[in-house]
Inverse folding.
């Protein structure tokens, strides 16, 4: 074609015009920390495992999940899921049912027989872990996956620590504990049951351990002095729950008073109902909204017929009755006695006033500091004794399963560094993917799917699991409610909305790249990115 | 609580792409193979809605025609920023003739293709609101009336932007332009009778008329694809915000298009042979004020004093659209 | 084949013989019969493989032709007067894009006052639009020029206007020799566009060109028209060989060799002029004339070769450059620059006023005796003019001159011969 000069042009020739020179600001892809990940005490990469679950790639999802937390099936039942409280979707409709999906993945792992990756390189180092509760299991798992030899010492005849001896079966079936523990054992972790450690240093020396992780649970119930005509009728909650695991179930009578307002109080009150108590009354010195117990558990207990008596303290216990004094809250919200008393019929009183850790085993460990009943550790969970680390209930702070798992993970990293002769430095955290960074227009409206709940009659009479799991369709649906806050989920919106075709799509799983030759810095991609995974920055000089 | 029966894919079809959808359901703009009909290196302003809308539309038309597409383009921003000698951004055979004759040029292209037996090749005409609703209106109407085999796409940015933001018949009332300045007792553009070219196109009873915006690429692509599956005169009117002319942030282009549709000011609908067949309902209704506040062309409605009277008039326009086109689901009304 | 037919019909049949593929039709007197006839030829199937499109304006007519031409179709349209002005923007555009469209102009005056009759003000107004302009002297030449115009346009990728005096030619029934389809097919090959909108080889047509290249683009447009100064005579020669009669060319001299006074004109008026030249020659006046066929490009050198020996030149023109006088005269003077030959301008035939042999005889005799003013309005009604000018001097705001004159005259029709 003899094209006319200047008036007729060859197609696509504007590529020679590099409009990137117009730019004063440039977009940059970032990974921001989603609030779920940020709040997870176990440091789970929730957004990322949901990403895989969204595609129905459940094994991949489970593998990402268990990089941080090996106890998926357990977590899916007992974690108090602070992630859901922080979930940005909660500001849009309802938070994503992360915990339910986690349970699905954990159960799916058992159904499908998924195992952890086998250890490929042995480090030759040996670590002893004291306690097979969540902290100990977590530490053992992480240490083993880094190639270290691990032996768990458990004083009780069965593994699980407070998982088994502190959480009722109707919340956590024992088969679930068994399968999650077995998966860790299968990695080559040695579990020694019924072995109470008396002298840590001696054991380490005898068996040639290079480091030690202490993960002893708080198994001693705190007592309060109550004048009692019959001391036998007063027991403690930890003891009751522990006894539930033995052959002889506790005998609490028809009318059971539980004293305290925490989750353990709820557990015991609900257990009492299941053991046949006609009345199971929680006596608490403050009001319901001040109870440390989780609201949904209180609700479940009330559904099951547990009664609540708040603003009351127990002042005396007789054979048939207890005496309570009414309280009132002062201006600071503290309960103050009123001098008004009443009596209540009671066959037994269970104290659920908190727990302590048995620290006897630490007596012969010089250099270890204990303050107010907890072991002092640094950020790496290292005690003052070289090579000895501690976590879980022992080190104070919030005592939950998930916190314990997190302690175990962090300690394992620090122990790994210690064994390599270096000091562990936690990686810096990304900035938070806050709600205001999202463009929520793009998310479809989708209400949360509800987990099936066990029929109320069965809940009052049996120890069957109260809360069911999601089926596959529901789990997938729930996973897909995740907004992937702060992390690209390859929705192609940046690729689409760029008026200058300056976003290069790299293909599935590879995300995108900016072509700064043409990007004019308009910021449309930043504004429209649904999940806030693009930042606009001043153009470098 | 409402239960959801539809299969749910996190973002559904709101985002440009969705890895959870099947290949066939994915948008043209999300694909690696998209043609970028309007290539990089064009000289549109930062955040240009028209550049975006044109690529969305023409890429979709290319896919629909297996790249057998010719475009005629009116004078205007799109023409100027895409084809300054010695570079062109277009990847398709493309002709610019004049400001007001694009529909006629396209008619000529279509006639030539027919007479040459090149019937697999299809024709798109495109122009801005000035080239369409004003100076090109006669040719447009003629093309409609003859039912020539042309898809005409109007990229409506509501003023003559290329010449420096002067009022067109598509400029909304009260908007400030260089020829409807924000001075005097009735600042900005007059409240006229308006000129709804999609409805005028429908009055020609042509096979297909649709409106769309750059805030919903899938809807836009669907309409272009549908249009290309038909023959005869077809018209698609696409709202393309102009950061420069509207006095808005370049990153706000898509958002403004969204607010225009979600407020009801810009109804999104489609019609066949003169009858409305579908409309896009409002998902999250917003007052017009949310839309107006983000644009300096309406700044005089908020400063120095809040012109609630004028805003109410604009709100009434939006409300009328909502009633007339049924933009809200019944339960939300 | 010899036919006694209306000029418009003859033009339509000639155009049809050139196998146009897209015809855009919009009525305007005196061109209307041409597109009517073409429409009929397409409807009957006599002209096949052709899209006949009734458009909504002249602007659309040429615009449709632009689109069609750029897509590789041979495109044709016709217009006149106001219609040409209404499509003016597209006129420039078609040439700027180098599209070989052929357009018939049925020459007609431009209003106001509105006037449907013949002069050449319309095509003259587009003389700088980049189109080749050919003026037909007779209906036979109108037929022949259209056949040549298609060749010319397509070989150069330049649009061509064939200017045919309205009514005088378009509506005149004359004997015309229409060639056969085979003859025309042999002379006009299929259109091979220089550029075409085709997805197989996509191009951008109609780019925006700035100061860095605009002058060059314009120069090249000029260059292409200059090439036509060679091509037009070549085609005329080829045409004559092919069809057995002379037609076209740049200009046509008549008794020029021994002439002292030479008359220059465009179009049908040359017939009358030749008659008067014959009379004057019989009377012993050394006079000849030149009919310019190609006004654009203007054959300056050829004209100078033809009339450079004259003592004086009289340009009879059917258009007026208000404020200066002649339009054709200006170009003739440029062709004769430095030759010291006086050029007289005679404005004649405006708005359909008859150019009579008597008037021409009178004005040319005066010119031959150097008794003519440099600018003369043929048959100007001095009495009317004087009265109106007088009135203008007494009344500051006197209203539209044209209406005043018409009122003065009582009626317009009585005075059109």
């Amino acid at each position: 074609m003899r094209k006319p000069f200047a008036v007729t042009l060859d197609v696509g020739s504007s590529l020679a015009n590099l409009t990137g020179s117009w730019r004063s600001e440039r977009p940059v892809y970032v990974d921001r920390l989603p609030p779920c990940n940020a709040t997870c005490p176990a440091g789970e990469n929730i957004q990322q495992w949901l990403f895989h679950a969204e595609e129905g790639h459940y094994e991949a999802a489970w593998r990402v999940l268990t990089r941080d937390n090996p106890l998926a099936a357990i977590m899916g039942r007992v974690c108090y899921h602070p992630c859901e409280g922080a979930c940005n979707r909660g500001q849009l409709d309802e938070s994503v049912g992360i915990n339910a999906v986690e349970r699905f993945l954990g159960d799916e792992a058992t159904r499908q027989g998924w195992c952890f990756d086998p250890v490929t390189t042995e480090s030759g180092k040996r670590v002893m872990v004291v306690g097979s509760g969540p902290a100990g299991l977590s530490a053992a798992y992480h240490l083993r996956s880094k190639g270290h030899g691990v032996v768990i010492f458990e004083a009780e005849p069965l593994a699980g620590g407070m998982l088994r001896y502190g959480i009722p079966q109707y919340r956590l079936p024992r088969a679930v504990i068994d399968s999650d523990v077995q998966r860790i054992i299968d990695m080559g972790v040695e579990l020694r049951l019924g072995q109470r450690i008396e002298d840590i240093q001696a054991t380490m020396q005898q068996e040639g351990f290079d480091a030690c992780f202490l993960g002893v649970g708080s198994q001693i119930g705190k007592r309060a002095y109550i004048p009692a005509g019959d001391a036998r009728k007063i027991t403690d909650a930890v003891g009751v729950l522990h006894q539930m695991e033995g052959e002889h179930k506790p005998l609490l009578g028809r009318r059971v008073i539980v004293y305290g307002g925490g989750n353990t109080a709820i557990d015991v009150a609900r257990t009492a109902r299941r053991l046949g108590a006609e009345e199971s009354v929680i006596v608490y010195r403050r009001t319901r909204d001040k109870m440390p117990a989780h609201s949904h558990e209180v609700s479940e207990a009330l559904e099951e017929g547990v009664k609540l008596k708040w603003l009351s303290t127990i002042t005396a216990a007789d054979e048939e009755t207890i005496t309570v004094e009414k309280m009132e809250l002062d201006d600071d919200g503290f309960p103050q006695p009123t001098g008004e008393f009443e009596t209540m019929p009671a066959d037994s009183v269970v104290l659920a006033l908190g727990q302590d850790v048995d620290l006897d085993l630490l007596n012969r460990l010089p250099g270890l500091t204990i303050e107010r009943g907890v072991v002092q550790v640094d950020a790496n969970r290292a005690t003052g004794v070289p090579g000895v680390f501690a976590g879980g209930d022992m080190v104070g702070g919030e005592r939950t399963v998930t916190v314990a798992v997190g302690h175990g993970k962090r300690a394992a990293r620090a122990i790994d560094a210690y064994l390599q002769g270096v000091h562990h430095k936690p990686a810096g955290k990304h900035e938070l993917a806050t709600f205001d960074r999202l463009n929520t227009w793009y998310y479809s409206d989708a209400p949360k799917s509800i987990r099936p709940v066990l029929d109320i009659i069965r809940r009052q009479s049996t120890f069957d699991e109260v809360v069911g799991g999601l089926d596959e369709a529901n789990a997938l649906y729930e996973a897909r409610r995740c907004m992937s806050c702060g992390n690209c989920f390859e929705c192609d919106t940046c690729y689409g909305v760029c008026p200058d075709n300056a976003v290069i799509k790299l293909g599935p799983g590879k995300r995108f790249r900016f072509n700064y030759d043409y990007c004019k810095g308009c910021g449309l991609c930043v504004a429209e990115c649904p999940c806030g995974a693009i930042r606009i920055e001043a153009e470098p000089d | 609580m409402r239960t959801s029966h539809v299969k749910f894919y996190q973002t559904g079809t709101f985002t440009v792409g969705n890895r959870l959808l099947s290949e066939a359901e994915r948008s043209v703009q999300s694909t690696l193979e998209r043609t970028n009909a309007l290539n990089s290196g064009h000289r549109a302003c930062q955040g240009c809605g028209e550049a975006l809308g044109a690529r969305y539309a023409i890429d979709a038309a290319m896919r629909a025609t297996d790249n057998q597409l010719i475009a005629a383009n009116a004078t205007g921003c799109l023409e100027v920023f895409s084809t300054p000698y010695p570079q062109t951004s277009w990847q398709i055979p493309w002709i610019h003739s004049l400001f007001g004759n694009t529909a006629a040029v396209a008619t000529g292209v279509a006639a030539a293709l027919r007479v040459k037996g090149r019937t697999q090749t299809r024709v798109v005409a495109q122009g801005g609101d000035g080239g369409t609703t004003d100076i090109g209106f006669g040719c447009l109407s003629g093309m409609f009336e003859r039912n020539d085999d042309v898809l005409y796409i109007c990229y409506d940015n509501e003023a003559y932007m290329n010449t420096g933001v002067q009022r067109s018949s598509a400029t909304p009332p009260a908007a400030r332009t260089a020829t409807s300045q924000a001075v005097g007792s009735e600042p900005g553009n007059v409240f006229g009778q308006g000129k709804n070219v999609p409805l005028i196109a429908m009055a020609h009873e042509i096979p297909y008329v649709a409106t769309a915006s750059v805030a919903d690429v899938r809807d836009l692509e669907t309409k272009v694809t549908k249009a290309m599956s038909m023959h005869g005169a077809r018209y698609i009117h696409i709202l393309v915000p102009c950061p420069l002319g509207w006095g808005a942030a370049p990153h706000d282009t898509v958002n403004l298009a969204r607010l225009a549709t979600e407020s009801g000011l810009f109804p999104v609908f489609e019609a066949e042979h003169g009858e409305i067949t579908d409309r896009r309902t409002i998902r999250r209704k917003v007052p017009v004020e949310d839309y107006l506040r983000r644009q300096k062309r309406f700044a005089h409605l908020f400063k120095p004093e809040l012109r609630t009277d004028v805003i109410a008039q604009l709100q009434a326009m939006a409300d009328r659209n909502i009633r007339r086109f049924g933009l809200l689901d019944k339960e939300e009304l | 084949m010899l036919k006694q037919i209306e000029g418009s019909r003859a033009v339509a049949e000639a155009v049809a013989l050139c196998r146009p593929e897209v015809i855009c039709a919009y009525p305007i007197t005196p061109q209307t019969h041409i597109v009517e006839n073409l429409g009929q030829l397409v409807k009957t199937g006599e002209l096949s493989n052709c899209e006949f499109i009734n458009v909504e304006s002249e602007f659309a007519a040429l615009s449709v032709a632009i689109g069609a031409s750029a897509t590789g179709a041979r495109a044709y349209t016709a217009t006149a007067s106001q219609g040409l002005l209404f499509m003016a923007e597209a006129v420039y555009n078609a040439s700027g894009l180098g599209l070989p469209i052929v357009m018939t102009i049925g020459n007609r005056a431009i209003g106001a006052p509105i006037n449907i009759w013949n002069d050449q003000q319309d095509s003259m107004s587009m003389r700088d639009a980049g189109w080749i302009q050919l003026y037909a002297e007779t209906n036979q030449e109108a037929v022949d020029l259209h056949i040549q115009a298609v060749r010319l346009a397509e070989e150069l990728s330049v649009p061509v206007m064939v200017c045919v005096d309205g009514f005088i030619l378009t509506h005149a029934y004359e004997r015309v020799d229409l060639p056969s389809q085979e003859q025309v097919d042999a002379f006009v090959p299929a259109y091979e566009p220089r550029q075409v909108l085709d997805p197989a080889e996509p191009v951008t047509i109609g780019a925006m060109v700035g100061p860095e290249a605009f002058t060059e683009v314009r120069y090249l447009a000029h260059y292409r028209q200059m090439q036509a100064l060679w091509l037009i005579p070549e085609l005329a020669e080829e045409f004559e060989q092919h069809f057995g009669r002379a037609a076209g060319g740049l200009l046509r001299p008549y008794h020029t060799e021994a002439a002292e006074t030479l008359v220059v004109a465009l179009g049908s008026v040359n017939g009358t002029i030749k008659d008067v030249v014959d009379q004057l020659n019989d009377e012993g006046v050394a006079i000849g004339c030149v009919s310019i066929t190609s006004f654009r490009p203007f054959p300056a050198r050829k004209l100078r070769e033809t009339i450079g020996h004259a003592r004086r030149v009289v340009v009879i023109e059917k258009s007026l450059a208000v404020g200066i006088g002649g339009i054709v005269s200006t170009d003739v003077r440029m062709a004769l620059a430095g030759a010291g030959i006086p050029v007289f301008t005679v404005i004649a035939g405006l708005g359909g006023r008859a150019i009579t042999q008597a008037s021409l005889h009178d004005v040319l005799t005066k010119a031959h005796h150097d008794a003519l003013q440099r600018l003369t309005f043929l048959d100007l009604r001095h009495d009317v003019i004087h009265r109106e000018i007088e009135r203008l001097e007494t009344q500051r705001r006197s209203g539209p001159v044209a209406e005043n004159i018409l009122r003065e005259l009582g009626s317009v029709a009585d005075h059109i011969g």
